[in-house]
């Protein structure tokens, strides 16, 4: 019989969930081996000072997550090899690399992600309805049932949307690209913050659009600069990430949200609001799709909350545009594979989805605090629960040279260059994706390397 005893003090939330979480962690760390028996419930309850009912619920949740199996009259056992394979998959390709890659905006890794995926796959593979959907052609916008379920999930995340106004896309990037290709004609003008998400820049280029970068400050996009642009040549669409600019983390102030909507109405401009970079609801401002539902398209995706590999996004559009967008989606790929939508829906339904998001939210906040400590004295811009940090370099330091030097020292970050819209000059700054580090220790080590590099004199060779 195993002598495994969980340590619950550092795990937040209800005790039964903490027990389930500890079981998942122990399996992932190899402390609990496949086939091993969990402690008898009464013994664990006594040791932890909780009721037997709490342990029963914790074990039931672990079983629901697919980690253990209860055998009547015998006890609860860690599941055998099929599950083990998913733990091995938890090793990211970069685990073997000497480089700590902080150049991609990823949610922090946790074994629950692979485990929830595994469980969702199993559930789909045994659901007659999901199997039937998986081999059928469905509505280009996604089945009504899928959209209803995603709507419930979005409401839980603090995004009150209407199922009838949604299209399911293959990720947020697809949503952006679909909107630009469907609503704008080649040569038309799209405006965005002068520094913005590179995927939007690339989608605009693919759609042969012209782009103009609007200056911004700590309150977000400058409405004076936007108004001046509208007076010269109004854009057909404004792409914006109001809660958290990528890369700088800047949030558009409430007053400017109202001004933006007023300008969009005056000049008849579409608004493309991107909320993919997830923040807890208390950290977000009022969404543009609530302020101007008649002209706002909103993109969200499962990438930063569940996993990027699912490729499931949600596009909210005004009623008058739905059929046009559905036609565009149909022309591109007929529909999103129902299989992946079912996987996402089964994942969302698991308690593990909530546990993972709660953990991730706290983890990102802890990582932001850690980064602020290590890089204290430098000029940082970030959101307290965001997954990126924007570091303005001290005088004399050049971003491209620093990025190269850091890569030699085993840390990968991005310069400002990929985020520059049109001919916006690149500021001397770097984006550090703190979520991408495998744990806080790796993050500390990378940040210490960055800090040390900032104090070293640049070493640019003289070339003619
Ligand atoms: C602001 C923003 N929008 C959209 C995306 C793309 O999301 P998805 O992976 O769902 O296509 C990203 C990805 O990092 C992003 O940062």
From TrEMBL:
Domain HTH gntR-type: 13-81
Keywords assigned: DNA-binding, Pyridoxal phosphate, Transcription, Transcription regulation
Listed Pfam families: Aminotran_1_2, GntR
InterPro entries found in the cross-reference section: Aminotransferase_I/II_large, HTH_trans_reg/aminotransferase, PyrdxlP-dep_Trfase, PyrdxlP-dep_Trfase_major, PyrdxlP-dep_Trfase_small, Tscrpt_reg_HTH_GntR, WH-like_DNA-bd_sf, WH_DNA-bd_sf
Keyword Lipoprotein: no
Molecular function GO labels: DNA binding; DNA-binding transcription factor activity; pyridoxal phosphate binding
SUPFAM superfamilies membership: PLP-dependent transferases, Winged helix' DNA-binding domain
The organism's place on the tree of life at top rank: Bacteria
PROSITE patterns: HTH_GNTR
Sequence similarity: In the C-terminal section; belongs to the class-I pyridoxal-phosphate-dependent aminotransferase family.
Protein name (database record): GntR family transcriptional regulator
Species of origin: Vreelandella nigrificans
């Amino acid at each position: 019989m195993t002598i495994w005893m969980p340590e619950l003090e550092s795990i937040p939330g209800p005790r039964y969930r903490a027990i389930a979480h500890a079981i998942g962690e122990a399996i992932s760390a190899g402390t609990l081996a496949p086939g091993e028996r969990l402690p008898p419930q009464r013994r664990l309850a006594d040791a932890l000072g909780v009721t037997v009912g709490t342990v029963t619920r914790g074990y039931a949740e672990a079983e629901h997550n697919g980690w253990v199996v209860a055998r009547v009259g015998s006890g609860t056992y860690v599941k055998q090899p099929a599950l083990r394979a998913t733990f091995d998959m938890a090793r990211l390709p970069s685990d073997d690399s000497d480089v700590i890659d902080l150049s991609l905006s990823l949610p922090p890794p946790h074994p629950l992600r692979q485990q929830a995926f595994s469980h969702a796959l199993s559930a789909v593979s045994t659901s007659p309805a999901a199997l039937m959907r998986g081999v059928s052609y469905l509505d280009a916008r996604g089945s009504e049932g899928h959209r209803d379920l995603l709507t419930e999930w979005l409401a839980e995340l603090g995004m009150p949307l209407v199922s009838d106004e949604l299209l399911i896309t293959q990720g947020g990037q697809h949503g952006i690209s679909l909107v630009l290709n469907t609503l704008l004609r080649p040569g038309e003008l799209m405006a965005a913050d002068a520094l913005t998400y590179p995927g939007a820049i690339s989608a605009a280029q693919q759609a042969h659009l012209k782009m103009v970068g609007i200056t911004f400050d700590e309150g977000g996009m400058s409405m004076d600069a936007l108004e001046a642009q509208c007076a010269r040549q109004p854009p057909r669409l404004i792409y914006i990430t109001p809660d958290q600019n990528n890369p700088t983390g800047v949030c558009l102030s409430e007053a400017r949200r109202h001004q933006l909507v007023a300008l969009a109405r005056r000049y008849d401009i579409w608004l493309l609001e991107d909320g993919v970079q997830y923040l807890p609801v208390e950290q977000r401002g009022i969404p543009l799709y609530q302020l101007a539902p008649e002209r706002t398209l909103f993109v969200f995706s499962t990438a930063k909350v569940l996993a990027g590999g699912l490729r499931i996004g949600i596009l909210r559009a005004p009623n008058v545009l739905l059929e046009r967008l559905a036609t565009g989606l149909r022309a591109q790929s007929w529909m999103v594979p129902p299989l992946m939508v079912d996987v996402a829906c089964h994942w969302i339904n698991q308690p593990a989805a909530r546990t993972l998001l709660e953990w991730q939210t706290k983890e990102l906040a802890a990582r932001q605090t850690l980064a602020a400590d290590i890089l204290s004295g430098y000029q940082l811009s970030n959101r307290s629960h965001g997954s990126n940090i924007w570091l303005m370099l001290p005088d004399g330091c050049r971003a491209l040279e620093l990025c190269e030097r850091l890569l030699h020292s085993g840390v990968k970050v991005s310069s400002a260059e990929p985020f520059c819209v049109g001919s916006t000059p690149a500021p001397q700054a770097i984006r550090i994706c703190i979520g991408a580090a495998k744990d806080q220790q790796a993050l500390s080590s990378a940040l210490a390397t960055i800090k040390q590099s900032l104090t070293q004199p640049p070493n640019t060779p003289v070339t003619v």
